Hints:
Blueprint: E1 3-9, H1 16-29, E2 33-37, H2 41-46, E3 49-52, H3 79-91, E4 96-101, H4 103-113, E5 119-124, H5 140-161, E6 164-169, H6 176-185, E7 189-191, H7 199-211, E8 217-222, H8 228-239, E9 243-247, H9 259-277, E10 283-288, E11 291-296, H10 297-302, H11 310-318
Helix pairs in contact: 1-9, 5-6, 7-8
The protein binds adenosine-5'-diphosphate and 6-O-phosphono-beta-D-fructofuranose (F6P).
Residues 9-11, 41, 72-74, 76-77, 101-105, 107-108, 111, 126 line the site of adenosine-5'-diphosphate (ADP).
Amino acid sequence: MKIIGVVTSGGDAPGMNAAIRGVVRIANSKNIEVIGFERGWEGLLTNSFRRLAPRSVGGILHLGGTILHTSRCPEFKKDEAIKKAAETLALNNVEGLVVIGGDGSLHGALELSKKTNTLIMGVPASIDNDVFGTDETIGFDTAVNTAVNEIDKIRDTAVSLERIFIVEVMGRTRGFLALNVGITVGAEMILVPEVKYENEKIFRTIKESKEKGKRSAIIVAAEGIGDNRQLASEIEKATGSEVRLSVLGYTQRGGNPSARSRLLASLFADEAVELLSKGQGSRAVVLRNGKITSIELEESCKTDKLLDLGLLTLAKVLAT
Ligand code: ADP
Ligand code: F6P
């Protein structure tokens, strides 16, 4: 193998740069050249890339975002776009491509792998942690820590003014971030898109919590559960408590990657380049039971990662 391509796609995640650095330097140790496609799948449609050498990825290990930039690229779902990307890979003699991104990007990687001779390797990176087959994605740990640090501060004001806070965290369709954050901040309630919530139940829980002597509460809610502002005003009306909404927003996607996200990125990069150099493709590298391994891209894409709903029960017990 002489040339490997690398691309970051979809929502950025802290640790993507660490993964790019890893791919470049591990490939270099195997005498493989690396080119970085720019702005996600777009770069493969416009043949826009730059050569990456070990020195050109210096000083990025600790940086959030991605030096290659990223994009949402709706046209990549069309056959013509996949064909164009396959042509770009062939034109540049790219024998292996490392796709660093979330669930959507890995779906794109799978479709591309069906239409090209280039070996395709997925590297899960997303603050949503929604890729099937891996216990963790690059960036998830960082986002959890970012949200926890913010909510610890919100807890101070919630306790002081005896208020209820709904803290909205990211997660348009999945609740992994909300669940992990909720448990680690001791949230009185966690609302995730996977579980339909009933207003009455929420009101009851708040009232019971008050009766137990709790004068404030933190509700961690994923953005995808619905209109959190409206929910805040409904809780206020029903319980008589003062309720505030705090939307953490895009800070959760940025910032320096945590040690854990950097380590995972480096280990994933190593496995991805190693597999490609051995002639293996159409796979995604994953973390399973503490070990780095890989599964077929097809398996990762066709299966929905399950949220451990038992942890919602645990969170409830911990918050009593
Ligand atoms: P993430 O990778 O963070 O989950 P998205 O869901 O936005 O982010 O997906 C990133 C990109 O991957 C999309 O903008 C699109 O270009 C591509 N993609 C997603 N799903 C598919 C699919 N089924 N087929 C081809 N490309 C896809
Ligand atoms: O990166 C994942 C994610 O943060 C989701 O949780 C969220 O729904 C989405 O991206 C929002 O990002 P954008 O505004 O870039 O589409």
